[in-house]
Design goal:
Length: 379
C-alpha cells in the first residue's frame, strides 16, 4: 500500500518532467528545421500525421475492451480539443518560433498557468478569494506573469555575455545565418504575439480536456481522435497556404527529424501523458512544470543554436517564473485545505445501532408531520 502511495504521488511529477524534456527537444529540432527553410504550417501538418500513426495502435489494442461508448457531445469536445490544443496552439507557436528564438518562445509559454487560471476562473473550475492568502497569491502571480510577458516581448536591453559554446554545429550556424539574412525588424514583435496566442489556445485546451478526461476515460483513444482531426485541419490549412510540392518534401534530414520528433514524442506521447496527469491532478497542476522547459531550452539554445540572452529576456523570464510559482503556491494551499476537509469528513464518528434506530424512527415520523400540517392547512 505504501509503495502504491509513493508511486501515486510521485508518478504525475515524473511524467510531467518527461513531458517537458520532450518539449525541449522539440523546440531545438523544430527551430533548426524552420531556420533551414521549412514552412511552419507544413511542420505542424506532418507533426499531427505522425502523431496519429504513433498513438493509434495503442488506442486500438489497449482500450478495445475498456473503451467507453462514444457519444456526439464527447466527439464534439474532442473536436474542440483538436482546434485549440493542436491547430491553434501549434500553428501559432511554430509561426511565432520562426520569427523569434527558442528561448523567447519557451519563456512566453510560461504564461500558461496564468492564462489557464483565468479561463478556469471563467468556467468555474478555480476560485479566487481575495480575503485569503491563496487567492491573493494566484491573482498576484497572474499579474506578475503578464508583466513579465510584456517586458520580454517589448524590451531586449543589453546582451548578457555567456561566452561561446564549444559544441556549436556548423550546419546550425549556416542555417542561422540564412534565417537572419531574411528576417526584418517587424518580426521582433510578430513572434512573441503569435506565441502568446498559442498559449491562449493551449490553456483553453486544458479546460476542455479536463471535461473529456472525466466523461471519457480512454486517453489513448481520445488522443488518437484528436490527432486525426487535427491532421485533416492542419493539412488543409497547410495546403491552402503552401501549394508547392517541393515544400512538403522530407528529403532534408532536419525536416524529417523535426517532423518525427514533434509527432511521436512531443504530440502523441506528450499529449497522452498530459491527459493522464490532468485526469489525476487537474489542469492547473500540469501547467506549473513549464519553468523546467525554459531552463533546458535556454542551455541547449545557447550550446547548439548560438542564441543570445538579453537583459529583457532574462528579467521577463524571472518575473514569469516567479508569478507562476505564486499561482502554484496558492493552488497548493487550497488543495491542502480540501484534503483536510475530506479527512475530517472521513473521521466523523459513525452512528451506533441505537442512534440509527432513533434516526430511522424520526424519518418515519417526518412524513406524518408534513401530512398533518397539510391537513391542518386544508382545514
Amino acid at each position: 500500500m505504501a509503495k502504491n502511495g509513493v508511486i501515486g504521488s510521485f508518478g504525475p511529477f515524473l511524467v510531467m518532467v518527461i513531458v517537458q524534456v520532450c518539449y525541449a527537444g522539440m523546440n531545438i529540432t523544430s527551430k533548426l528545421a524552420l531556420e533551414s527553410g521549412m514552412n511552419p504550417l507544413v511542420l505542424v501538418a506532418y507533426r499531427q500525421i505522425f502523431a496519429t500513426l504513433a498513438i493509434a495502435p495503442f488506442g486500438y489494442w489497449m482500450e478495445r475492451q475498456t473503451r467507453p461508448k462514444m457519444t456526439l457531445p464527447i466527439l464534439f469536445q474532442i473536436f474542440l480539443c483538436s482546434l485549440t490544443g493542436a491547430v491553434a496552439n501549434q500553428v501559432f507557436y511554430f509561426v511565432g518560433l520562426k520569427y523569434s528564438s527558442a528561448i523567447i518562445g519557451t519563456a512566453l509559454s510560461n504564461l500558461l498557468p496564468a492564462v489557464t487560471f483565468i479561463f478556469a476562473l471563467i468556467f468555474r473550475q478555480e476560485s479566487a478569494n481575495l480575503k485569503k492568502k491563496s487567492g491573493l497569491a494566484k491573482i498576484g502571480g497572474t499579474a506578475l506573469c503578464v508583466g513579465g510577458a510584456m517586458l520580454l516581448s517589448f524590451y531586449h536591453g543589453h546582451n548578457i555575455g555567456l561566452g561561446e559554446s564549444s559544441i556549436q554545429w556548423s550546419y546550425l550556424e549556416k542555417a542561422a545565418a540564412k534565417d537572419s539574412s531574411s528576417s526584418n525588424n517587424a518580426n521582433v514583435l510578430l513572434g512573441p504575439i503569435f506565441v502568446i496566442l498559442s498559449v491562449v489556445g493551449w490553456s483553453i485546451w486544458f479546460i476542455i480536456q479536463a471535461g473529456v478526461s472525466e466523461k471519457y476515460p480512454a486517453p489513448y483513444t481520445s488522443t488518437t481522435l484528436m490527432c486525426l482531426m487535427s491532421s485533416i485541419q492542419c493539412g488543409a490549412i497547410g495546403l491552402a497556404v503552401e501549394h508547392r510540392m517541393s515544400a512538403w518534401s522530407l528529403r532534408n534530414p532536419a525536416y524529417l527529424v523535426a517532423s518525427l520528433y514533434a509527432g511521436v514524442l512531443a504530440s502523441a506521447l506528450a499529449f497522452f501523458l498530459t491527459s493522464w496527469t490532468i485526469q489525476r491532478r487537474g489542469p492547473l497542476y500540469v501547467s506549473i512544470f513549464s519553468p523546467l522547459l525554459l531552463i533546458v531550452v535556454a542551455i541547449l539554445s545557447w550550446a547548439l543554436l548560438s542564441e543570445k540572452l538579453y537583459v529583457g529576456t532574462a528579467v521577463g523570464s524571472i518575473l514569469i517564473v516567479g508569478g507562476l510559482y505564486s499561482v502554484l503556491w496558492g493552488k497548493s494551499k487550497e488543495m491542502k485545505k480540501e484534503e483536510v476537509i475530506i479527512e475530517e469528513a472521513v473521521k466523523l464518528p459513525k452512528l451506533d445501532e441505537k442512534d440509527e434506530i432513533i434516526l430511522s424512527d424520526l424519518e418515519l415520523q417526518l412524513p406524518c408531520v408534513h401530512s398533518n400540517e397539510k391537513v391542518g392547512k386544508n382545514i
